[in-house]
Amino acid sequence: QAPPAPAVNAAPKEPEEVVSCDPEDIAALEQEILEEEKNAKDTAKESDSFVGLMARYLEDEGFGFVSSQECKETWGKADIFISGREFVASNVDVGDMVVFQVVKDSKGLPRVANPKTLKELTRQKTRLNKMKWEAARASASANMKRSAAAVTGGEMPNFRGRAVGQGPGLLAGGPGPGPGPGLGPPDAKRLRATSLASFAALGRGPALE
Predict the structure, then answer these.
(1) Which among 33, 29, 32 is positioned nearest to 21, based on CA atoms?
(2) What SS3 state is found at 102?
(3) 163-194 b/e with 16+ CB inside 10 Å = b?
(4) Which of 45, 55, 108, 206 could serve as 67's disulfide partner, Cβ 3.0–4.6 Å?
(5) How far is 204 from 194, CA to CA, in rounded Å?
(6) pLDDT digits (tens, 9 = 90+) for 27-58
(7) Strands (E), 72-161
(8) Which among 113, 48, 106, 47 is positioned nearest to 80, based on CA atoms?
(9) Which of 94, 80, 92, 86 has the alpha carbon at shortest distance from 116?
């Protein structure tokens, strides 16, 4: 009998990064990204390259587009075609910031060549998107709480401990049935007086003075 295979322990999951949604942190990261992107573009120009976003890839069609405003100045369009072969061979992914060259195909149309992921810039932009998403979620949650407080006067209603017909607004002689406010037993004298008045009105009981 073959010996049992050794147990393979699953790799421990890395704790999720706590993302700040403080406006000052967001503004500081945006400034870092601007500086990092400017440096990347300056370096790219030295080799006739461009910096852009791997904006989308249509897997069923086998092609995609890289978006770069600098290409619009040179090639007349911001979205540059990338073939499926180039996309797969370069190992880039949608959402990556990439540095790339532009060449003409057999029809004279521009297409992406030699794209490479700018890892640090991509990481920073991914973090910024998470921070903005967290800020938007926190803002929406705060707005919902303020709206609920405005409707309830700052307190949520509590209906625990009340019996049917014994809540506020159900006083005797009011719009609904019930012996009155609170949770205590009904006033026996008041009930008896009410009963006697009812019988007197029907001629079945003693008249009330």
Answers:
(1) 29
(2) strand
(3) eeebeeebeeeeeeebbbeeeeeeeeeeeeee
(4) 55
(5) 14
(6) 999 999 999 999 999 999 999 999 999 999 99
(7) 79-83, 97-104, 110-117
(8) 113
(9) 92
How far apart, in Å, are the Cα atoms of 100 and each of 22, 70, 87, 112? Answer: 34, 12, 11, 7
Residue corresponding to tokens 């007349």: 76
Q: Rounded to whole angstroms, what are the CA distances from 3 to 6, 7, 8, 17?
A: 9, 12, 15, 41
| Residue 110, both tokens | 């521009």
Mean predicted confidence (pLDDT) in 66-75: 92
Indicate the pTM of the whole model. Answer: 0.60
- Report the C-alpha gap between 209 and 200 in whole angstroms: 11
With b for 16 or more beta-carbon neighbours within 10 A and e for fewer, the 116-148 pattern comes to ebbeebbebbebbeebeebbeeeeeeeeeeeee
